[in-house]
Amino acid sequence: MVLSSGLPFDDFRALLANLPGPDDGAAEAVRAREATLTKPAGSLGRLEAIAEWLAAWTGRPPAVTRPLVAVFAGNHGVTNKGVSPFPASVTAQMVENFAAGGAAINQICIAHDLGLKVFDMALDMPTGDITEEAALDERSCAATMAFGMEAIAGGTDLLCIGEMGIGNTTIAAAICHGLYGGEAADWVGPGTGADEAGVARKTDAVARAVALHGAHLKDPLEVLRRLGGREIAAMAGAILAARVERIPVIIDGYVSTSAAAVLHAANPAALDHCLIGHVSAEPGHRRLVERLGMEPLLDLGMRLGEGTGAALAAGIVKAAAQCHSGMATFEQAGISGKDG
Ligand SMILES: Cc1cc2ncn([C@H]3O[C@H](COP(=O)(O)O)[C@@H](O)[C@H]3O)c2cc1C
Ligand SMILES: O=C(O)c1cccnc1
User: Fold this and answer.
1) Which listed residue, 40, 80, 120, 268, has the most CB atoms within 10 A of its CB?
2) Which amino acid residue places its CA nearest to atom 9 of ligand 2?
3) How far apart are CA 41 and CA 34, in angstroms?
4) Where does the record place the catalytic residues (predicted)?
């Protein structure tokens, strides 16, 4: 994307107001073929809906040949407020662990045959502490979104969104509280394992951040730049670019869904090309997916991030495409239909 000479967010506002819709013809072709496959009608349940969704958002028959997990990593100034049991240095250490193949996401990618790319977003430059200032200025936020857009360009036909960033469950909670209101406590949970005092510090940080920025939070992109972070902005950009490039997306847990929620607040149709891979055990996530009106594929008590829930769900999406494209029809297999 070439940035125009206007305000940095102008291009994103224009893009969000003019999102491409689904390919109804491709979806209809899936429904027609589905009815001919060697199984009772509807017996593959949600897999059938997933096959149709893949076609609608790619404009092609369902196929997943280059699935990719993109993990964006960023650091957060709010970690100074004691919001995570782990030190911020763990973000960079985990990025090294990803590169060495030692993380959970590496193993799920091996198990499900998914590509993995990790993007280190200026880890030595934590964003502003959201309880005291905006996380990012408009120019850096827009540039980071543009980076996220470029990161996935042309490289995949199924994008799983992941993140790494110590302190970012506080950031996710602040974004949700900023977008949806309620009480700060509604959106805060233990994250990596905060104890009661840690959860109280997180709740206080979220309440203070939203109070500080409150006058500006009607605009979802302002919520993103003031309360978000680099990995959050990059994930929002990647999800948006995928829509434009006709790449279906699987969102992961609380943190990646908070980035998606910003787009949804700007345009309620913005996540129609996305599935939510799983519902995380972080309590705010269930509340958030309900607000979005979306139905996560899996509920396994996971609360890790890194794209792990999305990557697990990618196995299901791959299977849905394979069933649709590979199964024989009743006619091909010489199997009698329902009425003989
Ligand atoms: C070793 C380790 C690996 C991780 N992988 C993902 N996260 C997850 O935990 C962090 C958010 O939780 P909080 O807000 O409590 O800091 C993020 O980095 C997220 O991706 C991890 C966290 C740790 C400690
Ligand atoms: O659901 C998530 O995304 C999550 C939960 C805990 C820690 N990190 C991420």
Assistant:
1) 120
2) 305
3) 8
4) 306 (proton acceptor)
For 67, phi and psi rounded to 5 degrees?
-65, 140
What is the chain's Cα-based Rg? 20
What is the pLDDT, as a whole number, of residue 340? 77
Q: Which residue has the tokens 């045959």?
A: 113
Q: Is the CB of 255 under 6 A from ligand 2?
A: yes
Contact assessment for residue 219 and residue 61, using Cβ atoms and an 8 Å cutoff: no
Residue 181: how many CB atoms within 10 A of its CB? Answer: 13
Grouping H, G, I as helix, E, B as strand and the rest as coil, residue 37 is strand
Kind and range of the H or E element at 166? none
Ligand 2 contacts CB of residue 192 (under 6 A):
yes
The class of domain 66-326 in CATH terms is alpha beta
Q: Token digits for 115? A: 């590509």
**Binding site membership of 170 for ligand 1 (Cβ less than 6 Å):** yes
| Domain spans, the chain | 23-62, 66-326
Supply the residues annotated as catalytic. Answer: 306
pTM: 0.98
- For residue 197, what is the enclosing H or E element? helix 196-213
Confidence of residue 5 (pLDDT cuts 50, 70, 90): low
**Plot region of 217 (φ>0 → left; ψ -120 to 50 → alpha; else → beta):** alpha
For residue range 218-270, list pLDDT tens digits in order.
Answer: 999 999 999 999 999 999 999 999 999 999 999 999 999 999 999 999 999 99
